[in-house]
Structures are given as structure tokens and as C-alpha cells.
Amino acid sequence: MPELPEVETVARDLQRRVTGATIADVEVRWERTVRHPQPPERFVAELGGATIRRVDRRAKSVLIHLADGRVMTVALRMTGALIVADAGDPDDRYARVVFHLTDGRQLRYRDVRKFGRIGLYEGGGLRMSARRRPARRVAETREVYRVGDVFARHGPEPLASSFSAARFAARLERRSARLKSLLLDQSFIVGVGNIYADEALWRSRLHPLRAASSLTPAEVLRLHRAVRAVLRQGVANRGASFSDFVGADGGPGANQERLQVYRRTGEPCLRCGTAVTRIVVGQRSTHFCPRCQPLGASER
DNA sequence: ACGCCTACCTGCTTGC
DNA sequence: TGCAAGCAGGTAGGCG
Question: In what helix (H) or strand (E) does residue A167 lie, and over which residues does it extend?
């Protein structure tokens, strides 16, 4: 389940392994993986001969920057993975898009459930979207899309130095939504998914159903620190692997062993021993300690 | 602004 | 053993 730490791991692996590589040919095995605005045939035609200059991450997407300034975005969603395969490696029945490199290797986009999407855009606009700006829909008739437009309505990057506690407080103050739902909302803050939302709330001792605007300054500070801490720890451990998450090196992460509440329903809270409770919030399973993360009647 | 629903997909686990 | 239902969860889009 790729969230920020898992996507960051993939991006770093790729940066190390495919920078400078040239794409000879592209094989699209599941058309819907290639998203608007590029029809699959055009996508393939426009990528032939392209050289990879750099790979990084934005929100939960891997950005593959090409030498000519264009950017390929890879949203892994649930089960997506980018894997570098050497010439002669056995084929993968779940490889949905295969980028054949001129050196004989393959960059494979593997995705069991086919939720992930790959796009190809003109460069530009990424810096601006780091700041708040008016939500603006991309005109449907436009031929050229800038990669920045893809992220125009996304929230701040929680690990950026510009993401201060004060800024977080200002955003939380205006919202009445429940903390769990807000943390998962990519227009509020990017990179946090179900695992790290539960972990951050446990760490900051906040109930998932607390209204964002009800937090005291001290609680905001705890949550701000917790979100950053759990994400940093995730990155340090190369992400959490449950079913089939792997980095581009093919190896699993180690962070699942460090998780404190996620998927520990019924097991003792690692702070107080109370059984971890599971509830459903916004259709998502949510794990928390009812004793460490109380929901006072006055806090609703 | 927000919650709720459905759709997108497949594999694994659970229950009969 | 077989089979079907349930579950997993990131995100877009629709509705109220």
C-alpha cells in the first residue's frame, strides 16, 4: 500500500538505477494504466528515444523527468510497483507496462489490481503547486498539460521544511472534519494513507474522530510532529510491506515491523496495554487505542 | 465543505 | 474439498 515512504523508496531506487537510461520501446499490456491525456499509441510513440534525467516523488506519485523536460507520472495506488529487471529475467504476468531500455534492461510497471495510472506531461508548474493557489480545473480541450496541473489541488508536502506547525494549525483550524478523514484527504495534506494516518494519530494520542478544529495548540503540535515522525521513520525503513510492496530493487521494506497500531486489532497497545480497537471511518478501517486516544464528550 | 456511495481490480482469507 | 462472500485500500466522480 504505497504511501509517501513507499513511493519515496521507489523513487530513490529508480533515481540510482535508471538515471541516464534511454527508453527504446514501450509495451502497454493494460491500456487503462495509461491515463488521459495520452492515448496509449501516442504515449508509446512519444516515449521512444526518451532519456531519463532524474526520478523523484511528488505526493504519492513517482515523477520520471525526461531529458527534454517532459515528466512521466506514475501513481502506484494500491498495488503498483516499478521494478528494474535485467535482460533475461523471467517475465511478470502482472507487468502492465514495460519500458524496454536500450541497455537491455526493462523498467516494469507491475500492478496486480490495475488501479495505478501513468501519465506523460509537459514540465513546469510544480513549484507553484507547493504553495496555496486557487483551485482551477484544467480545460478539457487543452492539448498540452503541465505536470504541475496534476498536483494543483494537492495539499502541502508534510516533510517539506515549509510545512510548519503554524501552517498546519491554520489549515486545521478551518476544518470541522474528523482527523482521520482529513489526514487521508490529499487536498489537505499529501502522502498520508491509511497506515500512516493511524500511526500518526496513535503517536499523538488523538482520537481519529476528533474534529480538526477542536484541537488545542498543544495537540496540533503533537500531531504535526507525529505525522512527520512516522513518515520519516517509514522512509528510513524503506517503507512498509504487507502483501506485495517492493522497492525498485525488488526487496521489501521493513517498516511493517515498526508499526504501533495499524492492523493490531485486539492486541495490547504498546503504551498502555489496552486492546487496540478497530472502527470504520469513511469506509476505511481505523485502528486506535481507546485509552490513549480518548474522545471526550466535550471534544466532539 | 463534507459525508456517503460506487467504481475501478485481483488475490487472499474466511465461512459454510 | 469447493465455492462464494468478504476484505484490502488510493482516488475519481456523482449525489445530497
Answer: helix A165-173
CATH number for A165-288: choose from 1.10.357.10, 1.20.1200.10, 1.10.8.50, 3.40.50.720: 1.10.8.50
Q: What is the DSSP string of A42-67?
A: HHHHHHTT-BEEEEEEETTEEEEEET
A52-89 pLDDT, tens digit each:
999 999 999 999 999 999 999 999 998 999 999 999 99
What are the residue boundaries of the structural domains of chain A, listed by start?
4-150, 165-288
Nucleotides in chain C with any atom closer than 7 Å to protein CB: 7-12
Residue A239 has pLDDT above 50, yes or no: yes
Query: At A62, phi and psi to the nearest 5?
Result: -90, 130
**Max intra-chain CA distance, chain A:** 63
**Which residues are within 7 Å of strand C by their Cβ atom?**
A 1-3, 59-60, 75, 77-79, 113, 115, 184, 186, 193-195, 263, 283-285
Give the pTM: 0.92
Q: Peptide bond preceding A37: is omega within 30 degrees of 0, i.e. cis?
A: yes
Catalytic residues of A: 2-3, 60, 284
Residue-wise pLDDT for A91-102, tens only, equals 999 999 999 999
